[in-house]
Structure formats: C-alpha cells, structure tokens
Task: structure prediction
Amino acid sequence: MKILALTVGASPQPIVQSIQQHRPAKVIFFVTDRPDGGSKRFVLEGDTNNPSIVQQAKLLERQFQVVVVEQFDNFAACYDQMARTLQKAKGKRTSGEFIVDYTGGTKTMSAALATAACRFGWSLSLLEAPRSSVQQASLDGIATIQQTSSVIVDELTVRAKDLFDRGDYEGAARTVREALGKLVLTYERRQQLQRMYDLFLALAHWDRFEYEDALKHHGAAFGMPSGLLDHLDELAKWEKEGGPAPYRLVWDLAANAERRANQGRYEDAILRLYRSIELIAQIRMKTQYNIDTSNIREEDLDRTLGERHRESVKKKILQHQGDKYTAGLLASYQLLAKLEDPLGLMFKEKWERKTQEEFLPLRNKAFMTHGYRPLGEQEWERAWEHCRAFHDDAAQALQMRLELPPQPDWEWTDPSRAKVDLRPSRKAPSGKE
Result:
C-alpha cells in the first residue's frame, strides 16, 4: 500500500501533480482553515479557475483524509499533530510505501512534516522544476524522492546513544537493526552501522554474563579496548571449559553492579556487590582447597582441618543439609580463617566485624531479601565504598592484581578508534598478576 501525505499551500497545482505522479492508494492532506477558506478550500471546493484537488486527482472519498492544522506557524504544534497522524497512518505495517511531499503549505508546516517523516521512516518527496520561475515550477514540476537516509541514520544514532547511555545495549542494537533493515545505505554507511550493531550486541551479552556470545559479536566492533577483549576472552574460555571460576569474574560482577547503579537500580546493584564478596571466598576455597562451599563433605573437612577442628567447624560455622554442609558468605571466610588462609585471616582481622555490623544489615534491608522498602542511592554509596575497599584488601592478601574492566563508552563506536589499545584505567595493582 502506498500512502502520500502532503502540506497544501496557496497553489493547488503542485499537489495535483504530486498525486498524479506518485499514484498513491491513500492521500493525507495537511491544510489550513482560515475565514477565506485557507488551503482546505483547494482540496474540497476548488476556486473560480480550477476544480478541487480531489476532483482533479480523481480521488474517491475513501481515498483521502483532510487534517486541519490550526497552529500552522507553530512548529511544535504542527510537528505533534503531523507526527501523530503519520504514526497512526503507518500503524504496524512493515511493507508498503510511505511518502511525504512537503512542496506546499507554510514554511513551518513543510518543516514540521519533513521532520516527522524522518522521525517515523517516511520517504520525502519534493516537486522540482526545470526552470527558475515559481509559476512554471508549479506547472512543470517533477515529484522526486529526496535522499534522507543520512538524516534518518543520524536521528536513529541519537536514539541509540540515549539507550546506550542508559545501559540499554539491547535497545540500542534494535534501533540500529531498524536502520539496517529499512534504509537504502551506501556500503560505507552500512558497514559502520553493522559494526555498531555488533558492538551493542556484544555489550548486551556481556551485561547478561554471556561471555561466549559477547565474543561472537565483538569482532567487527570499532574501538572496544583490548583490555576488555582480554577480560572477555578469559571469561568465555572458563564458561566453555568449566572448572573453578577465575577471580576476574569477581571484578566483572563489581563492574556490572556499578552499571546497575548508574541506571538507578540501586538494590539490584547492592545484591551484586554482596555476591562479589561471597564469590571471592568461594573461588579461593575451590582453587586452593578443592572445596565446594555449596557441597562440603565430611572427607573435605577431614582432609583440610583434621579431627581437632572438624567438629567445632561443623557445629559453629557450617549449615547442615542432609548428608552435606554448606557455607554462606561469613561461614566461607570463617572456614578460610580456620584453615589459616591469608584471605580468611585478613577478613577475620579487618572485615568480619564491619561486614556483620554494616554491610550485611544493609543488604538484609533490601526489598528483594528481607526488607519492605527498596534501597536507594545513599545505601548504594555505602555498599560500594565497603565493597571496593574490601576488594583491594582481598587482592593484596591473595597477591594478585585487582583490575575492573572498562565501562562501555560511546567513543567505542567511532570508526577512527578501531583497533586502538585502551587499557583499563581503574587499577589497584598489588604484587604479582
């Protein structure tokens, strides 16, 4: 189905020519209605010299719609009315031709209609004349489709950036996919958008902890830092091969929590911080002592603690579930302390009391755990300060580097930044890697 929308001004002839050349199934006329009839009279009544536009164009009543623009010199009012009309006319159609001709009407009406067309993916048409006379332009014009893809791409890019800045990488990808699916683009422009699409998809998968899928899409991305690629590569390898989780997963979780906070999802962010602290102990127990804190067996305790401490740990630290024992956040660190592990000893000396008195009560107030009111920005700031300081001390106790992955930056979409080596800047090195 072809739909043609036009602004009608003081000269009806260009409008008739546009309709005759485009041959639409439906026409939408945007008109003025003044005491003298405005441009509405040209559409429905004609004048002393010419029949009405609908008569000249041989339109049946069901083939046209007349929309009176009351505030025809107010751009915002014109745009709002025209945008609603175009959006409704197009509806959910995914096929067909949707054309806007902005030859007639007031300057404000023409500008507003062209802007609305670009916003909702309509093509632009203008009646061009081979001679310079205005009158001859009206009589001898040729309706030509204007090249608007670059304008639409720029507008979609603005929308994608807004979604990107809010951390909605999936939404940014959908916006770019819309442009790739609907617009006729140059090879260079299409390649640019395809790389942006790949980047947004890679970030969306990363944000959902889907590391292998993130790596599948990063290849054509513009300027994704090599530090992040190394980060994803290690996590994707672990995801594929299994085995003990790397400590890099902890830093990834902390960065993910920071992104949730930047979106205003403070409670979600705080719960991620809690998990990151717990995860350090779990990884240490597994890599150093081959103990799974969700399934601690009697033989694990015998092997690591011996008979002297086994019964005390079972009674005072661990939770008994059937034929196994489990250890939560505090219990995991307390067990590490019993094993005289440097991480456990550091926690016992400096962080056990702070965690019990400050961090855990904060986490337990969350609506998603035991509370009745959601946590806010102030609680997030306190939790983030606690967590980051603890991460630093944990890294030092384990003689390793703490390195948060870089947060997504819109500059990564710049083609000139392709293959640029941007190492993460937020580091807290202490000892060996």
Notes: The chain has 18 helices and ten strands.
